[in-house]
Design brief:
8 strands; three-stranded antiparallel beta sheet; five-stranded antiparallel beta sheet; 39% strand; alpha+beta
């Protein structure tokens, strides 16, 4: 009986682990797909500094983001949220996860072109931005993401998805 319980526990944790990998894989593949949608000289195209990952039940990613309005500045954005705090996967202009209030941690470091730090900001909120949103045909991402979360043992919703 003990062996059976141990075996079931191992199987469940392996299945759950593979589904969290599926979550990050879906995000990464969509990010790559959307990179191709930017123009050759696009200044506002985000760069993935640290790929989407889930470690110790925490979803995290890091981006480099440039702005046309401040081309001499480079934003390094580090984001993380406990996967247990995620409540929804939605799209307005951006694809994002909503989570419990204050559970998303973000560190933004603004540097000049020479790499000197101009400003560092730490924020908490309930919004985990994925830097996705250019693909008007991304409804399958929504469906697959909800399915991956459910299979990993997390129930999240997706109230709206605007393209």
């Amino acid at each position: 009986m003990r062996l059976l319980m141990l075996l079931l526990g191992v199987l469940f944790s392996t299945a759950s682990f593979s589904q969290t990998e599926k979550i990050t894989d879906l995000l990464y593949k969509q990010f790559l797909r959307e990179q191709k949608m930017y123009g050759k000289d696009a200044v506002d195209m985000p760069v993935l500094l640290q790929p989407f990952q889930i470690k110790n039940d925490t979803l995290s990613a890091a981006f480099i983001i440039r702005s046309e309005s401040a081309p001499e500045e480079i934003l390094y954005s580090y984001r993380k949220v406990s996967i247990h705090d995620i409540e929804a996967f939605i799209k307005d202009m951006n694809v994002l996860f909503t989570a419990n209030e204050g559970s998303v941690q973000e560190v933004n470091i603004i540097k000049d072109r020479d790499g000197a730090v101009l400003e560092t900001r730490k924020n908490t909120s309930h919004l985990f931005f994925t830097e996705l949103g250019r693909d008007a045909k991304d409804e399958s991402l929504r469906r697959k993401m909800l399915q991956a979360f459910e299979r990993a043992g997390y129930n999240i919703i997706s109230e709206y998805w605007f393209n």
